[in-house]
Design brief:
single chain; 294 residues; alpha/beta; 6-stranded parallel β-sheet; 4-stranded antiparallel β-sheet; 17 strands; disordered N terminus; disordered C terminus; AB_hydrolase_fold; Serine hydrolase domain-containing protein
């Protein structure tokens, strides 16, 4: 016997994939029901059923069913997730913030020296890893990668990364390290990155692993005219395919968005929303569900 009947619920279309049932299995799966069809398929059985969820927009109600892009936010050197949250939410308009879900982390290591934001933002302060003055040698880098992966699992599903300064350097390198199987091997592929005051790792061995293949996922880069990292951010762009760029007149900071910058940002957010929405259409195993057929 085969079931191919489409079942429609609010905002979701469930499409049956034809499956042959053994008689005993079917007997345990089918129960009588007051529903006119007289049949309920209890999918909380080990039937290996596959359902295809097709999210459809049905007015405002359908729009609510569309999952926003969920973004892991990596703050700057010797700051914190709360500081990054404050900087971002105070400077970016609601029209931007309402389109995404932002997850702000604290880096795994307490600040190991003076913070540049001391006196501006309250402690505690954190850092992702330690490095020498030439930015060629790094300490606790592997532990940093493990920590980020653990956070991606904890806050799953994570679609992309938003990074500032040290967090931006990490965010720009992680897709390449993931593609090489060096980092984030237990989580889905990073779909996009947003880089504010970014740069490349200068260690030759690490750079070869991170940037040998150009970054191909959608990326948005912020370059400040007065930012000391601007030349390094421009150098990073050479390792990126089709980057979107927002220029601003400020220095090493989270910038406010002028009219042109806001337009670029909204175009980028529309693009990543389409990517995330398409992801919702993949087949998934249904373990606990009851569907009425009729």
């Amino acid at each position: 016997m085969k079931w191919c009947t489409p079942v429609t619920t609010t905002n979701t279309t469930l499409s049956w994939i034809p499956i042959k049932f053994q008689h005993d299995t079917l007997h345990s799966a089918i129960k009588t029901s007051p529903h006119p069809s007289g049949i309920i398929l209890n999918l909380n059985l080990n039937l290996n059923l596959k359902l295809k969820r097709n999210r459809t927009a049905m007015g405002s109600e359908g729009s609510d069913a569309i999952r926003k892009p969920r973004i892991l936010c990596l703050h700057g050197f010797r700051t914190s997730g709360e500081i990054f949250r404050t900087q971002t939410t105070k400077k970016w308009p609601e029209s931007v913030l309402e389109k995404v879900e932002l997850i702000f982390l604290d880096a795994p290591f307490p600040c190991n020296g003076k913070s540049e934001v001391e006196g501006i933002f309250d402690p505690p302060y954190y850092e992702w890893f330690q490095f020498n003055k030439d930015f060629l040698e790094y300490e606790n880098f592997d532990k940093c990668l493990e920590y980020i992966e653990e956070c991606m699992i904890k806050h799953a599903p994570i679609d992309g990364l938003l990074g500032f300064s040290q967090g931006a350097i990490l965010s720009a390198a992680l897709p390449g390290l993931q593609a090489k199987g060096i980092a984030l091997t237990k989580v889905p592929k990073i779909k996009f990155v947003m880089i504010v005051s970014g740069a490349k790792f200068r260690n030759e061995a690490l750079a070869e692993k991170a940037y040998s293949v150009p970054l191909q996922c959608p990326s948005l880069h912020f370059l400040g005219d007065e930012d000391f990292l601007k030349p390094h951010g421009i150098e990073l762009l050479k390792s990126v395919v089709d980057p979107l760029i927002i220029h601003h007149p400020r220095g090493h900071t989270i910038p406010r968005l002028d009219e042109k910058g806001l337009e670029t940002m909204m175009n980028f957010l529309d693009r990543i929303q389409k990517i995330v929405s398409n992801k919702e259409d993949v087949n998934e195993d249904v373990k606990e569900d009851v569907v009425t057929v009729g």
